[in-house]
Amino acid sequence: MKEMGNEHKKQDTGHIDACELPKGFAPKRFEIVILGGGSAAFAAALKATENGVDVAICEEDVIGGTCLNRGCIPSKSLLKASEVFYYSAHQPFHGIEIPKGKVDLAGLIEQKDELVHSLRQEKYLNILAGNKKIHYFRGKASFISENEVKVEDQILIGERFIVATGATPQIIPFKGMEKVDFLNSTTALDLKELPSSMVIIGGRFVAVEMAQMFAHFGTKVTILQRSKRIIPEEEEEISEGLKEHLEEEGIKVITGVKIVELYKKGGKQTVRAEVDGSLSEFEGERLLMATGNAPNTKALNLEAAGVKVDENGFIVTDEHMRTSNPKIFAAGDVAGKMPLVTVAAAEGSVAAQNALNTGSLKIVDYSVIPRAIFTQPNVASVGLIERDAVAKGFSVVSRTLDLRHVPKARAIWDTRGLIKIVAEEATGRILGVHILAPEAAEVIHNAGLLVKNKMTLKNAVEKIDVYPTLSEMVKLCAQSFYKDVKQLSCCAE
């Protein structure tokens, strides 16, 4: 198989490399040895050093992890650029006309790379240089025993270990994979020329974000999703709403797809797939695999340390981030619990505190963590979706409010989307809030506090919001449990 795209360049770490020890030096001892150099690893290191502990960080690739180098930061920068380009020529205000202009993708990629380099220096390398309790060892780390790891020619002995090596894009070996050139979510962000067409295999958050980004720049995009819905982990109303808006912008969304074979045809990357019992061909200048992530565990020699992994290779941990070996903890995407950078950082901090036994054992409460997809409109969610709440034994009530009933959405001429609140029937406790709307990723923090603090619909109704704001949608949806919000005047209670 041929995976296309630029390889990441090794970073200039300056004097930090002085921490690397020449061959022949005696083993180095640390209270905590951390494998990995991303958000989870640095959160763990900083928490440990706050408690006066010297730690080692081992990283073979570019410092900063997926979020900074290959995920959140670069993708959101390019998504915003695509929105500026597309919506300038597709805006709703009468009396304004803006020429469509053109896209210099190479220039945008260069600006994105400058941003990543700057943040890597500020948020990671400067920490390594300034925090004398963090010792950086560059190279591939693997366990020799439950007490030792080897990093290049250096042996590190640890009282405790935290594995935070992250994950990388998963490539499913479809028939004919070796006959095509394909991109993944990393290499797609390094393209210097805009493809005329693209087929994306996958339909979750990476797929829909990439689809809209390239479509906004002018690429003809087709999404092929295995399940019956894109973003199937979200409420059905949210999933179907996003599909509708993507299609309105010219993106072809095909669901219920079974990939049969990949091959080249007339210079195009071609996918033969079964859809509704019939075979179809989908062609694109580029093929993007957005088929999930695989944990970076294969090279760690976890067996030597007595650390168990699940059937997909993710490290198995308990609620305290402890692995099957009580001396070894795991955090972030390698543990496979919730693939968010915020979660990785929280897990890293918890792992460090528990490894050091700094009081009562800590846990991460995943049930109250908000998440977002940065399409336009955004998708954002916190708490339980309705079917999961029912499965957990709750008797629930729910309401869905169309965005056209939110005054700020009317004022900005963007009423795409909806908000849904799921609540416990007997108490009115808010169990989940789910939004498809402009700026939903910002609004969800409002809802997150309601879920986290086990607040009720009446609590949400009683709060007073700034008017007009999109955040008001949470209160309006809560009001819809008690009255017809279409019959309310502005700001009416």
Question: Could you characterize what this model shows?
Answer:
- The protein is of the alpha/beta class and about 500 residues long.
- The chain folds into three domains: about 10-170 and about 295-355, 3-Layer(bba) Sandwich (FAD/NAD(P)-binding domain); about 175-290, FAD/NAD(P)-binding domain (3-Layer(bba) Sandwich), CATH 3.50.50.60; about 370-485, FAD/NAD-linked reductase, C-terminal dimerisation domain (Enolase-like, domain 1), CATH 3.30.390.30.
- The protein has helices at about 40-50, 65-70, 70-90, 105-130, 205-215, 235-250, 340-355, 385-390, 405-410, 440-450, 455-460, 470-480, and strands at about 1-5, 30-35, 55-60, 135-140, 140-145, 150, 155-165, 165-170, 180, 195-200, 220-225, 250-255, 255-265, 270-275, 280-285, 285-290, 295, 330, 370-375, 380-385, 395-400, 420-425, 430-435.
- Strands 2, 3, 4, 5, 6, 7 and 18 form a seven-stranded mixed sheet that branches.
- Helix 1 (about 40-50) packs parallel to helix 7 (about 340-355), helix 3 packs antiparallel against helix 4 (about 105-130) and helix 3 crosses helix 5 (about 205-215).
- The longest helix is centred in the first third of the chain and has 26 residues, at about 105-130.
- The chain is globular.
- The N and C termini lie far apart (about 60 Å).
